[in-house]
Amino acid sequence: MTNVKVHSVAKTYGTTPVLSDITTEFPEGSFTSLLGPSGSGKTTLLRIIAGFIKPDQGVVTIGNNDVTDIPVWGRNIGMMFQSYALFPHMTIAQNVAFGLERRGIKGAAARKEVDRALEMVRLPGFGSRTPKQLSGGQQQRVALARAIVIKPSVLLLDEPLSALDRRLRQEMQVELLRIQRESGLTTIFVTHDQEEALTLSDKVAILDKGRIVQIGEPEDVYERPLTRFAAEFLGDSNFLTGTVDNGAVRLADGTVVRTTSTLPTSGSKVTLAVRPEKMSIVSGPTDDNSLTARITTVIYAGPVLSYMLETADGLPLKLFAQNRDGKVLSDGDTITLSWAPEHTVPVGD
Amino acid sequence: MKPLGRIYLVAILIFLYTPILVMMAMGFNASPLYELPFSFSLQWYEALWSNTVLLTAGLNSIVIAAITAVLATALGTMASVALSRRTFRGRSFLQLMLLPPIAIPWLITGTAMLIFFYWSGIGRGMHALLIGHVALAIPYVVLVVGTGFRTIRADLEEAAMSLGSTPVHAFFSVTLPLLYPSILGAALFAFAVSLDQFVISYFLATPGYTTLPVQIYSSIRKGFTPEINAISTVLLLGSMTVILIFARFAKPGDTRDKR
């Protein structure tokens, strides 16, 4: 078990900066997701840690070793690829044994390790098959077995589940988490699937334009996004803009919105983020923050109803409600919605 | 549509193979002037057996084709690795410039080679034939192997490297085995290009060292005997066997993706 550190790592392709000055730490045994849109630099960061890409500047350490100048084959990493990348001309057992052989483990000792790894991914007895005879999910399990059988210092996952269908993906998520917990491997997981990032990780790092915008526990990042981008990329969010006035925020239409978070000084402009599921439709007066809005669309999604709303000022809002009584409100109805001050989070741009 | 298609296919095969079958049959006909009625005889094969000029030329052809296949496949595969897996200045230009030699008429290529070889002191003879054939075969090899490369994902080598392989080991343990059918196909292609080659060989051969197509051509000019049919039949059966073995084992056109 080892921790992984990157220190002021930067990478530029031509004149395009892909990563600018990334410094962060992946603690021993933790599961960290790198979450961001395509082009945010998350894959580049993973490939720098793997050793496929050499950073222009900065230092990568695995354990206590500076590995910045060590190529990928000398780093003892386990990696899973989006396309599984199983060797098609080898059997499952040969695939899993590949890394062992590179480490001088052969014969009976290797067979024992291979069997144990295949058991761990719940594919015992599959050793003599070829990758072609396996389903996508099974191939991905083999790829995982191949990556962990060498007892890597760090497990790097490059969107390994994105090629699987939804059901299989959820199954693999559970499996991946179980194996990560059992093996205690420091794991870094690149994904653009926010739900996946929240479910799996101890820590989520949100990347945008080559920078880590925010890193923290999933709940922390979700409940208290630091920037508008973080609030928008991880989950849905409503944004209200106004001016700080006497410890609260006055919106353009005069509505006063309170928050439990610290606000900048009076008179400054501020953007507040409110999650759509924190808002609720109320019938009577309330002590919480409230607004009136007109329903533009109701989306019936089974357990949840999504209301698309618009205030008198034309500000679009979203509200998610549990489907308790079915679809009782319809398009064009005017409603009062409310939410608690503690769910009102000021965000930077 | 189905019976029509079948008739069409059969017609194509008839047009392709009838002349060849007639040629083969006449090798077993006793008449030196290809006269009918047909009377079976092995005399032309016996005559061929003592015709050292034709036999030597046939052997030369096979030797040249074999060496060409080995050299062109090795050089072409290496070029293909660079063109498919590396990025460097002028890569797309080089890739593009591989195609024109295939389209340039052999007569022009042959003339150019003759002039160049004469001017540079390379001259004519076996070595000149080899250089010419290898140069001619390389573009085919690069094309065939390059197509093979496109079916192999680059992340397979990355996976091998993540497991501890150096790039060289990753290439030999992962890419090469997957590329093997393409390389074999390319070698056969190079072999066939060399064996078939007449125009360039005609220019570069010397009276003392010729290949079979050149020898057949000069024999025909002197008036020919069914010995030509006999050696053609032997050569044809030989190369067809090789092609069929390849088709059986390497399954060209196999669309399995190599992920």
From TrEMBL, chain A:
It comes from the Bacteria. The keyword Nucleotide-binding applies. Residues 4-234 form the ABC transporter domain. InterPro entries: AAA+_ATPase, ABC_SmlMolc_Importer, ABC_transporter-like_ATP-bd, ABC_transporter-like_CS, Mo/tungstate-bd_C_term_dom, P-loop_NTPase, Transp-assoc_OB_typ2. The keyword Lipoprotein does not apply. GO terms for cellular component: ATP-binding cassette (ABC) transporter complex. One of its GO terms (molecular function) is ATP binding. Keywords: ATP-binding, Nucleotide-binding, Transport. Transmembrane segments: none annotated. PROSITE patterns: ABC_TRANSPORTER_1, ABC_TRANSPORTER_2. One of its GO terms (biological process) is quaternary ammonium group transport. Belongs to the ABC transporter superfamily. This is ABC transporter ATP-binding protein. It comes from Neorhizobium lilium. The lineage of its organism: Bacteria, Pseudomonadati, Pseudomonadota, Alphaproteobacteria, Hyphomicrobiales.
TrEMBL record, chain B:
Its main location: membrane. GO terms for biological process: transmembrane transport. Residues 58-246 form the ABC transmembrane type-1 domain. CDD domains: TM_PBP2. InterPro entries: Bact_Polyamine_Transport, MetI-like, MetI-like_sf. Keywords: Cell membrane, Membrane, Transmembrane, Transmembrane helix, Transport. It is found in: Cell membrane. GO terms for cellular component: plasma membrane. It is a multi-pass membrane protein. The chain crosses the membrane at residues 7-28, 48-75, 96-119, 125-149, 170-193, 230-250. Belongs to the binding-protein-dependent transport system permease family. CysTW subfamily. This is ABC transporter permease. It comes from Neorhizobium lilium.
